[in-house]
Amino acid sequence: MAELFKDHINPGQFHFMKLLGFHKVKIETAEGMYYTDQNGRKILDFFGGFGSLAHGHNHPRVIAARKQFQDENRHEIAIAFLSQYATALAKNLAACSPGDLDMVFLGSTGSEAMEAAVKVAERASGRKNCKIVYAENSFHGKTKGVLSLTDSELYQGDFQLVGNRVKVPFGDLQALSNAIKSDPDIGVVVLETVQGGGGIISAPEAYWRGVRDLCDEHNVLWVADEVQCGYGRTGKFYAFEHYGVVPDVTALAKSLGAGKAAVGAMIAKRDVYMKAYGSPKTAMIHAQATFGGIGEASVTAMEGLNVLYDEDLIENSAQVGAHLISRLKQIQEKYPKIIKDVRGQGLMVGLEFQDFSKTMPMVLRPVLAMLDEKLKGSLSGFIGAQLLRDYDILVAFTEYNRNVIRLEPPLVCTMDNVD
Ligand code: PMP
Q1: Do residues 69 and 202 both lie within one domain?
Q2: Domain count for the chain
Q3: CB 225 less than 6 A from any atom of ligand 1
Q4: Are residues 159 and 293 in the same domain?
Q5: 141: buried, middle or exposed (CB in 10 Å: 19+, 13-18, 0-12)?
Q6: Do residues 212 and 340 share a domain?
């Protein structure tokens, strides 16, 4: 299978998997917090598919809902009909969302949801040459529009980027204020509420209140990317709820599909949405795609939401996450030369290692000398992730800062799992 993967899917990615030792692992089954590989080895999942598995693997209620849908021969392409499934999901998502975040677009991925979010905001801003502010260290997806708002040479490569864009440092209110005040064409600000790929980085309440005020004062639309940090991951349904503010547009994906379907959603304030697409004339430029809100995906996401609340998974995320952080901080106190920082909220936790290249024993220095600067600086998280795999615990480092191990287990994670 390894050869076939290399020949037909992605030779570059195969190389990367080999580096991590994943090329030898074939996952046979998965349940709750665990994977089982081809040798019957159980692997505790603290990676959760980049935080996309709130309900754990193969939640029985989600499977049952899908099975019922299939057994009853149901099917529906939402774009063609007044879909009962898509409508029910949209109504429930609006109910989970504060303020008048009421209008829902359903797609299949986080990138698609973010594309829709940026489009609705750009139109509602009323600017002809609308400029979009995004943050350093951001990740919003790999389709061309949002790739252009993703601050990574790694992903952007030498593609032609699109749109009028202005980059500011994340969490720096003064920089945002300077940008908005100096350029009336700025109509949209796009920010992850917690930067995931960037290394699990959050900003204080004063920053978010400032973002809200600045946007209100200058008629700018704030888009909050909650694809990774939303859906209960930080101990609230949306991470922005920690700060008592509501953005104009937001986006969810990942766990929204309950680990079984590809579902992304853009949720916009009613008036914002109406400004953009409210008239029959503009209805067709709305982002709707062929498979958005398709029956089986909508039913899956609906049951996922039911489970999230019936099993108090958001509260569990808050409590188990606090336990995880406190246990890791105890270890950090004991080994400050190894662990630099422990941070996060709920079950979105970053464990940052000291730059190992600086503390490496003398005997290993020659090995280090063989690596380039970038690789040297990111060795610790890499080694940390490898070592944890020897204990049958699956974790991964964050994309931009590889000294940070991301701990984003399913929200069904228990105190015992943490211990
Ligand atoms: N936004 C954020 C914050 C993400 O973390 C991701 C995925 N890692 C995306 C957008 C894109 O989601 P997808 O991979 O489903 O397109």
Answers
A1: yes
A2: 2
A3: yes
A4: yes
A5: buried
A6: no
Q: What is the dihedral of CA 236, 229, 214, 95, to 10 degrees?
A: -50
- 264 CA closest ligand 1 atom index: 15
Looking at the structure, tell me whether residues 212 and 235 fall in a common domain.
yes
Ligand 1 centroid distance, CA of 322 (Å): 25
CATH code: domain of residue 322: 3.90.1150.10
Q: Do 317 and 305 belong to one domain?
A: no
Of 310, 330, 353, the domain-final residue: 310
Distances 360 to 188, 356, 365 between C-alpha atoms, Å: 45, 6, 7
Residue 70 contacts residue 296 (beta carbons within 8 Å): yes
**β-pair partners for 353:** 339
Instruction: For residue 101, count other CB atoms closer than 10 A to its CB.
Output: 23
**ipTM passes above 0.85:** yes
Q: Do residues 245 and 265 share a domain?
A: yes
Q: Alpha helices, DSSP H only, in 142-287?
A: 144-147, 153-156, 173-182, 205-217, 270-277
Interatomic CA distance for residues 363 and 56, integer angstroms: 43
CATH number for 130: 3.40.640.10
Q: Per residue of the chain (419 residues), what is the pLDDT tens digit? A: 778 888 888 888 887 777 667 778 889 999 999 999 999 999 999 999 989 999 999 999 999 999 999 999 998 887 777 889 999 999 999 999 999 999 999 999 999 999 999 999 999 999 999 999 999 999 999 999 999 999 998 899 999 999 999 999 999 999 999 999 999 999 999 999 999 999 999 999 999 999 999 999 999 999 999 999 999 999 999 999 999 999 999 999 999 999 999 999 999 999 999 999 988 888 777 777 889 999 999 999 999 999 999 999 999 999 999 999 999 999 999 999 889 999 999 999 999 998 877 767 676 677 667 666 666 667 777 778 888 888 999 998 888 888 999 999 999 999 999 99
Pick from 393, 404, 388: nearest CA to 340: 404
Task: Based on the fold, state whether residues 96 and 222 are members of the same structural domain.
Answer: yes
Residue 404 lies in domain: 2-59+312-418
State pLDDT tens for residues 340-369.
Answer: 999 999 999 999 998 877 767 676 677 667
Q: Give nearest CA residue, ligand 1 atom 14.
A: 110
Ligand 1 center from residue 408 Cα (angstroms): 14
Domain boundary among 255, 277, 310: 310
Per-residue pLDDT of 72-114, as tens digits, reads 999 888 777 788 999 999 999 999 999 999 999 999 999 999 9
Assess whether the C-beta atom of 291 lies below 6 angstroms from ligand 1: no
* Residue of 47, 154, 192, 228 to test ligand 1 pocket, by largest number of atoms within 8 Å of CB: 228
Q: Are residues 192 and 259 in the same domain?
A: yes
Rounded to the nearest angstrom, the distance between the alpha carbon of 254 and the centre of ligand 1 is: 7
